[in-house]
Amino acid sequence: MPTQTRHGTAQRIALALAGVAATLAACGTAPEATPPSPEQPGASAAPLERSDVDAWLDQTLPAALEEGNIAGATVAVVHDGEIVTSRGFGEADVDAGMPVDPDRTLFRVGSVSKLFTATAVMQLVESGEVDLDTDVEQYTGLDLGLQHPVTLRHLLTHTPGFEERITGLIGTDTTPDLRDSLVTDPPEQVFEPGTTPAYSNYGNALAGYVVEAVSGMPFEEYVAAHVLEPAGMTSSSFAQPLPDHLAADVALGYPTAEEDPLPFEVVGQPPAGALSGTATDMARFMLAHLGHPAGDQEILSPATRALMMEPALDADALGILAQGPRMGLGWFDESRHGHRVVGHGGDTTAFHSHLQLWPDDGTGLYLSLSSTGTDGAAYLLRDELLDAFADRYYPGPGATESTVPADVREEHAQALAGAYESTRGFHSTFLTATGPLQPTRAVVVDGDRVRFTPGPGQLGAAEYTEIEPWVYQQVGGHRVLTVRADDAGQVEMIGHDSAMSMVPVGAARSASIPALAGGAAVLLLTALAWPVGAAMRRVRARRRTAAVGNDGAAPGPREAAGAPAPVRLPRRLTRLAAVVTVVALAGWAYVLIAVMNLQPVPELLVRAVQVTTAVGVLGLLAAGWRVVAEVRARTGWVRIGTASVLLLAFAATSMAVNQLLLLSPDITY
Asked: DSSP letters along 288-342, please?
């Protein structure tokens, strides 16, 4: 499923073309985020009571929905064991004018569903049926061919080491089979488990299958009976399609409020994001995790709930990354203002949600939006609401003072400057091209600060300052980055948002995109020049014929001779290879855009594009032959120079094809 910011379920990742390929982004260029205002030390908290929360929401949401072109929203706030408020805004069905009802209208919560999957897993841990640190293949019976064993601890902390997968993530087909989705083209394990935060829908789905395999119940039925029902969530379900008594109440999802609604989104791996629920039900789930169940039955013991919210990996596994936000068992560390906060966000193509608990304060906040909105407005609005809630009800101290000497801050800032790509990405297939196509760029500002564009886990740029050695805090914000460097001070990894990390884009990979763009431009000009040149030669031939008819003079020997025989074939082969390469790159542009927009691409088409690419790469040999032939035939510096430029273009394109794995035999995605 598509996600753009933080840790959503689905990924609204479309490709913005750069030459002949595209970048991992959200349906176009992401809008610039407004820099957060600095936290105000000593600010007084507003009363967390219904009248104040409702007034704040009424002042904030209706105007924001209209401005962002978002169809609807639903919000719930809990505190001290009670539902403070549960609200609906906008419309669940725009054409029908149906308002959002927080008690009846279901929203697709995306990856917030993973909290329910983690809860189900921890029920089995609590009963002794599974262990957090045992190879999950002992529970599932699945042979996934993994290089390193994976445990439930790895799966719930997003450190199993899997690369990303898109196939079947979200679509419109109904009743997906969880086991089949796991065993059909599983992702490669590209990192050692426990060492590298790299958010994984597949990993969470595998955890859900452990629940299914051990309990003997389909995952959806187990969660309904053991999580939703005890929590009092009578209007929520993981079922796809929804049961008849709920189907009529689900909000429609829209790109923007002015566009047609999207079909019901079917999540191919249900544990990762298939839940549909009302705001009131989500409030009951928050209360259950805060120790206030709807009935007499607790979904988990206090000790297990506390365990889920504690960091689940230590410095032995993560190294210095453990000094930043760390995953609990399903929960992200989203602490701010000196308060402990845990949460989880979620995105489908249309819906954008977030759930946060302030466990030490007995508070919870849930919100969901039913449209992406104009220029991705929902992503910004969601973050703004979370920040505004924290600022209003739990204001905290100002920025942390740095303990790092100025000269060290400057040295470390210089080391951080460069381009980075997410570990949550594609590493063994042709989609590895999406990494260097959309790097996060870090530059030094004011000598010792670092500006990231975009900010890690954000839409717009963000500045960070070093507060402890290799630990950075967002300027005017609450986010924290940690940097893993080698003994020489070279950056190896940047950790952020608990389950995310970035690694430097290597020099060769960085060069592959401009090399591809430059080579493609030259080859395109060559391909276009071929028919243009042929047309011009025909025009000249007609003129010569006309001249012969008028005065009887034959063309001169230079005109009649044409190209020297030794260069004719290499010239033709080079031009043909240029045309083939341009066609191949256009094919890759189509494939990448379709895949990243979650559209199925036939395997035969990908193979055909690969074969065309391979033929185009062979143009390097033809271009080399042509340079030698032009030199030997002494065709002049213009011809030799042109041939040399073409040789460089083919070399650059071939290098990029190799770096971006466009000819990889593995075409799964």
From this structure: HHTT--SSS--SS-HHHHHHHHS----HHHHGGGGGS----SS-EE--BTTB--E
Q: Beta 21-25 vs 14-18: how paired, if at all? A: antiparallel
CA neighbours closer than 13 Å in the CB half-sphere of residue 440: 25
Separation in Å, CA 88 to CA 74, 95, 463, 597? 4, 17, 35, 30
pLDDT at 417 over 60: yes
CA–CA distance, 340 with 324 (Å, rounded to integer): 13
pLDDT tens track for 134-174 = 999 999 999 888 989 999 999 999 999 999 988 878 877 77
- What the block records as the tokens of 127 is 């009963």
CA-CA distance, 583 to 612, in Å (whole number)? Answer: 8
How many Å separate Cα 185 from the centre of its chain? 20
What is residue 162's DSSP assignment?
Answer: B
Which residues are CB-contacts of 480 (< 8 A; sequence separation ≥ 6)? 324, 325, 471, 472, 473, 474, 496
In the block, tokens 């640190």 appear at: 133
Q: Between 113-126 and 302-309, two packed helices, what is the crossing angle to 10 degrees?
A: 130
For residue 241, is the peptide bond before it cis, meaning its omega torsion is within 30 degrees of 0? Answer: yes
Give the separation between CA 262 and CA 502, rounded to whole angstroms. Answer: 33
Could you tell me the end-to-end alpha-carbon distance of the chain, in angstroms, rounded to an integer?
13
H/E stretch holding 25 reads strand 21-25
